[in-house]
From TrEMBL:
Coiled-coil ranges from the UniProt annotation: none
Species of provenance: Formivibrio citricus
Domain called NADH-ubiquinone oxidoreductase 51kDa subunit iron-sulphur binding: residue spans: 59-104
Molecular functions per Gene Ontology: 4 iron, 4 sulfur cluster binding; FMN binding; NADH dehydrogenase (ubiquinone) activity; oxidoreductase activity
Protein name: Formate dehydrogenase beta subunit
SUPFAM superfamilies for the chain: alpha-helical ferredoxin, Nqo1C-terminal domain-like, Nucleotide-binding domain
InterPro entries the UniProt entry points to: DPD_II, FAD/NAD-bd_sf, FAD/NAD-binding_dom, Helical_ferredxn, NADH-UbQ_OxRdtase_51kDa_CS, Nuop51_4Fe4S-bd, Nuop51_4Fe4S-bd_sf
Length: 664
C-alpha cells in the first residue's frame, strides 16, 4: 500500500507530513500497483488529490492537469473557457518561476468561480481539487520547484464513456452533432470501430443508463439515436469511406469470425498496416449481428457497408463458408504462414429448456438462434421457410423479442411469449418489449414450461405452470416458484426456445493447446486477450459467452492493439488507459455522483417509427431517422459530464508516450 503523505478526498483533509511514515487508509485502492516497477507519486481527480511522494512537484502536477482541462473545454461558456486557460497559464508561470506568489490568490478565486459558474460537467469539476489544495496546502505550492520532468498521465472520461465497453468518447461525438460536423462525430466513433450505424440501431445503450441527465428529468440523452444519425448522414451521402491503409508490415493475421469482434479486430489491424484474412462459416459478414438480428432492426445493406465493404476497401480478404473445427484448425493456420490468430467465433448453439419430452429433432421445435437463422436465409436469400399456426416463444431477452416479432412477420396466426418472471424483470430492451406488445404479441408472464406435448413426432402444445413470486432475498430480489396444481396446456404448432446460447464444444481440439472453461469459452488474459497458446488471441462471444454487440466491438479493438504489440514489439502491453479504466471501475469513482447545477429541463426526442399494423407485414426497418433539427436539440441535452483523472509516476509510463490522453 502506498504511504499517503497529504491530500484532500471527498472533502476530508489528510495530513501526515509531520508524522512518521506509515501505511494509511487506501482511499483509492490499486494506486500502488498502477504501473509495474513505477511508483505512483500522486493522484488528482475531481473528488480530491492524494500525494504519496514528498518530492512531488504539486504546481507542475496541477499545471499538467489544468492544461488538459483547457484542451477539453468546449468554449461555450466563459467561466470554463477563460478560467481553465488562465489557471493553466498561471500554474505554468508559477512553476517556472516567472509569476509571483500573489498569483496563488488569483488561482483560488478562478478555481471557485469556474466550479460554481460553468455550464458543463467539465468546468464544474476540473478545478475543485485545485481549490482544495490551495485552501489546505498552499505552502506546498513552491515557485520554480525543480526542473525535472513531471510524468503525468491525464485521462479524460465521463460516466457514459466508462459505462460503454468500447469507451467511446460520447460527449465528443455529441459535440460534433451539435456543431453540424457529422463527419467529425462519425470519426470519433470510427476511431474505435467501423460499425457505427449498426451499433446506433441495436446497441443496448449502457451509456444511456449512466447518463446524468436522468437525474434532472428521468430520461437520458438519446446517445444511440445521435450515433445513428451521424453515421446515417455518411451512408446517405456515400461518405463511409476511409483512405486505404497501406500494408507496412510483413506479418499476416488470420481472423476467425466475421462478426462484430472479428470485423473490429480486422479493421484496426488493417489501419495499423497489418494484412488480415477473415474466415467465417456463413455466406456473408456480420456474424450474429447478421443472422440473429432481423432486418427490421438492422438492415443488411447497412451492416454490409460497415463490415465486408469497408474491410475489403481497406485491403482485407474474406473466406466464407469456412468453419473452424470442420474445414481447418488453428494448427493449419500457422502452417499457412500466419503470424497471429484472432478467434472471434460466436455462440451459435441454442440452449435447451430442460423440460420433459424436449428433443431438438422434433418437428415443431427450434432454438431461438436456429429459428432466426432460417428467417434470415429466407428473407435475404429466398430459401424456403414458412411459419403457420400458433407459435410459442420461451424467454425474455432480446433474442426472444426478435423471435416473436419475426414469427409475426412470417405469418404466424398467433404468437405467445412465455416468461417465468414479471414483465419488469425481462432483460430485453424496454423498447423491444413495448414494440412487441404493439405488434400483438401475447405475453404470459409468471408462467414456465414443464413439458412439450408431442404427437407422432410433432410438437402440438406445451404444458405450462403458473409461477408466483417468493419473498425478497438478502439482496432484495424476488425469486419465483411453481404454483402446485396449476398445470395447463397451450396448444401450438411451433415452440421456440430462446433462453440463451452456448459456444459449440467441438470448435477447438484439445491438442491445439488453447485453454477453455467448463462452458467451452476460451480463457484469456482480461487485459490483452491472449490465450494460453502463443500468438493466439480471442474475444467476443467465444470468450464472454453470448453478451452484447458492443462488448464484442470492445474485444475486437483491444485484441487488435495487443496483436499489433505482439507482432511488432514481441509482447502485448496493457495501456495506461486500460489501467486507469480498471482503477475507476474497481473504486466505483462515478458512483454516488450528483449534478452540481440543475440543468434546464429538455424533453428527450422521439424516434419516428412505422405503424404497427403496417410493419408486421414486412421486414422493412421499423425505426426512422430523426431530422437535423431534432438531432441538434437532442445533442444540446448533453451535460458534458467530463472528469479528469491524473496519475503522477516516478518514470514515464511508456517510452515515447505523451503525458496526457483522452478516452476515445
Amino acid at each position: 500500500m502506498a504511504n499517503l503523505i497529504y491530500g484532500v478526498w471527498d472533502g476530508k483533509v489528510h495530513d501526515y507530513r509531520q508524522t512518521q511514515a506509515g501505511e494509511q487508509e487506501a482511499l483509492v485502492a490499486g494506486l500502488e500497483g498502477f504501473a509495474p516497477d513505477n511508483a505512483t507519486k500522486a493522484f488528482i481527480a475531481d473528488r480530491g488529490f492524494l500525494i504519496f511522494d514528498r518530492d512531488t512537484n504539486l504546481v507542475e502536477a496541477f499545471s499538467q492537469y489544468m492544461a488538459q482541462a483547457a484542451k477539453e473545454s468546449c468554449g461555450r461558456c466563459t467561466p470554463c473557457r477563460v478560467g481553465t486557460q488562465r489557471m493553466r497559464d498561471l500554474l505554468a508561470a508559477y512553476a517556472n518561476g516567472t509569476a509571483r506568489e500573489a498569483c496563488l490568490n488569483d488561482l483560488a478565486v478562478l478555481a471557485e468561480q469556474t466550479t460554481s459558474s460553468s455550464l458543463c460537467g467539465l468546468g464544474q469539476s476540473c478545478a475543485k481539487s485545485l481549490g482544495d489544495a490551495l485552501k489546505h496546502f498552499r505552502d506546498e505550492f513552491k515557485a520554480g520547484a525543480g526542473t525535472a520532468e513531471q510524468h503525468s498521465f491525464v485521462y479524460t472520461t465521463a460516466p457514459c464513456v466508462e459505462a460503454c465497453p468500447s469507451k467511446i468518447d460520447v460527449p465528443k461525438y455529441i459535440d460534433g452533432v451539435k456543431g453540424g460536423k457529422f463527419d467529425y462525430a462519425l470519426g470519433v466513433v470510427m476511431d474505435k470501430y467501423s460499425m457505427a450505424a449498426s451499433c446506433g440501431r441495436v446497441c443496448v445503450r449502457l451509456c444511456e443508463a449512466a447518463c446524468r441527465r436522468t437525474q434532472a428529468e428521468g430520461s437520458a440523452v438519446g446517445i444511440r439515436m445521435l450515433k445513428r444519425y451521424a453515421a446515417d448522414q455518411a451512408l446517405l451521402n456515400n461518405r463511409l469511406h476511409l483512405k486505404k491503409s497501406l500494408v507496412q508490415h510483413k506479418q499476416r493475421v488470420a481472423v476467425i469470425g466475421a462478426g462484430p469482434a472479428g470485423i473490429t479486430c480486422a479493421y484496426k489491424l488493417l489501419q495499423a498496416g497489418i494484412q488480415v484474412d477473415v474466415y467465417d462459416m456463413h455466406k456473408a459478414s456480420g456474424g450474429m449481428a447478421s443472422v440473429g438480428i432481423p432486418s427490421y432492426r438492422l438492415p443488411k445493406d447497412v451492416l454490409k457497408a460497415e463490415t465486408e465493404d469497408l474491410i475489403r476497401e481497406q485491403g482485407g480478404n474474406f473466406f466464407y463458408e469456412q468453419k473452424l473445427g470442420r474445414d481447418f484448425t488453428v494448427d493449419d493456420l500457422f502452417a499457412k504462414g500466419y503470424d497471429a490468430v484472432f478467434l472471434g467465433y460466436g455462440a451459435h448453439k441454442g440452449s435447451l429448456l430442460g423440460v420433459k419430452n424436449e428433443d431438438p429433432s422434433l418437428d415443431g421445435y427450434d432454438s431461438g438462434v436456429d429459428f432466426l437463422l432460417k428467417v434470415h436465409k429466407h428473407v435475404e436469400y429466398g430459401e424456403p421457410f414458412e411459419v403457420k399456426g400458433d407459435v410459442v416463444v420461451v424467454g425474455g431477452g432480446n433474442v426472444a423479442m426478435d423471435c416473436v416479432r419475426s414469427a409475426k412477420r412470417m405469418g404466424a396466426k398467433s404468437v405467445h411469449l412465455i416468461y417465468r418472471r414479471t414483465i419488469d424483470d425481462m432483460p430485453a430492451d424496454h423498447e423491444e418489449i413495448v414494440a412487441s406488445e404493439h405488434e400483438g404479441i401475447i405475453f404470459h408472464c409468471l408462467t414456465n414450461p414443464s413439458s412439450l406435448v408431442v404427437e407422432n413426432g410433432k410438437v402440438v402444445g406445451v404444458e405450462l405452470l403458473e409461477m408466483r413470486q417468493t419473498e425478497k432475498d438478502a439482496k432484495g430480489r424476488r425469486n419465483v416458484e411453481a404454483v402446485p396444481g396449476s398445470e395447463h396446456v397451450l396448444k401450438c404448432d411451433l415452440v421456440i426456445a430462446a433462453i440463451g446460447q452456448v459456444v459449440e464444444q467441438d470448435t477447438l481440439k484439445a491438442e491445439e493447446g488453447i485453454e477453455r472453461d467448463r462452458w467451452h469459452c476460451i480463457t484469456v488474459n482480461p487485459d490483452t486477450l491472449e490465450t494460453s497458446r502463443k500468438g493466439v488471441f480471442a474475444g467476443g462471444d467465444c470468450v464472454l459467452g453470448p453478451l452484447t454487440l458492443v462488448n464484442a466491438l470492445d474485444h475486437g479493438e483491444r485484441a487488435a492493439y495487443a496483436i499489433r504489440d505482439y507482432l511488432l514489439d514481441g509482447s502485448a502491453h496493457i495501456t495506461p488507459q486500460r489501467r486507469m479504466q480498471n482503477l475507476l471501475a474497481k473504486n466505483k469513482l462515478f458512483s454516488g455522483e450528483c449534478l452540481q447545477t440543475q440543468p434546464v429541463r429538455k424533453e428527450r426526442a422521439r424516434v419516428p417509427e412505422l405503424d404497427a399494423i403496417e410493419r408486421i407485414k414486412t421486414f422493412d426497418e421499423v425505426d426512422g431517422v430523426i431530422s437535423k433539427e431534432v438531432a441538434y436539440e437532442e445533442a444540446t441535452r448533453c451535460l458534458r459530464c467530463y472528469r479528469l483523472y491524473s496519475v503522477v509516476t516516478e518514470k514515464s509510463l511508456k517510452p515515447g508516450q505523451k503525458t496526457s490522453t483522452i478516452a476515445g
